[in-house]
Amino acid sequence: MMAYTTANTIEEFRQHLADVHARIGAACAEAGRDPATVRLLPVSKTVSEERIRNAYAAGCRELGENKVQEAHRKWRAMSDLPGLKWSVIGHLQTNKAKLVAEFATEFQALDSLRVAEALDKRLQALGRSLDVLVQVNTSDEASKFGLLPREVEAFVKQLPAFASLHVRGLMTLALFSDDVAKVRPCFVRLRELRDRLLQSAPDGVAMDELSMGMSGDFELAIEEGATIVRVGQAIFGARKAPDSAYWPDAHAAGQR
Q1: Between helices 49-57 and 10-31, what is the axis angle to 10°?
Q2: pTM of the model
Q3: 3-state DSSP of 41-89
Q4: How far separated are the first and last CA of the chain, in Å rounded?
């Protein structure tokens, strides 16, 4: 496991961001890709407002958050920062859709028509639109949210009904493991699924984006075609609990 040092000052954040961009550049060079085709999404879950403001001063202009209420609170507290965009990357319950519709520019965890309908209704009322990615459970773990790969095509075909949702691609959480042989297949499955969907996706549904890879495995994700990498600890520093602790448990919630 990598050791992640905590960034607090603007200069420390500048250095961490430079380090991550260097890793992205090296991974792209290895894979024969242009670094401009990979978007870095800094993930600020559990990070204080003060430290986020320093990250903003160091160049962060978009942030990913798992928990809607935490993200909404931070958005309100930092509404004075021009150009700062918020992406919700964690599971969404329908009763929180109104919060996401109010502030987010992107939602990366769409996996149910009920949530799509709730978001669309709220967005229409506000005159807003939202970029969305469909979450896919590529590791076939009962504890994770997301559609199984075999369910995605039929799901995507129903999304044009929700005019305020702009479908951009797919997202996955790989297996939480240090074993590359176990993690890589999760990324391969998402890319292969996207490639199949390019042939069948309805008009108005784009399949350009693959959001996959986090601090410990984003080079592997880039090798397999990631266009968005969600990086928290390599920018902000180590969190107190492992990654898996910050993602809702679908099994406990009574869902696959």
Answers
A1: 60
A2: 0.94
A3: EEECCCCCHHHHHHHHHCCCCEEEECCHHHHHHHHHHCCCCCCCEEEEC
A4: 29
Annotate 209-240 with b (16+ C-beta within 10 A) or e (fewer).
bbbbbbbbbbbbbbbbbbbbbbbbbbbbbebe
According to DSSP, residue 178 is labeled: S
Q: Specify if 245 maps to a domain.
A: no
Work out how many domains the chain is built from and give that number.
1
Instruction: Report if residue 68 sits inside a domain.
Output: yes
Average pLDDT over residues 205-216: 96
Distance CA 120, CA 128 (A): 9
Judge whether 5 lies within some domain. Answer: no
- 3-class secondary structure, 243: helix
Domain span holding position 56: 10-238
- pLDDT tens per residue, range 61-101: 999 999 999 999 999 999 999 999 999 999 999 999 999 99
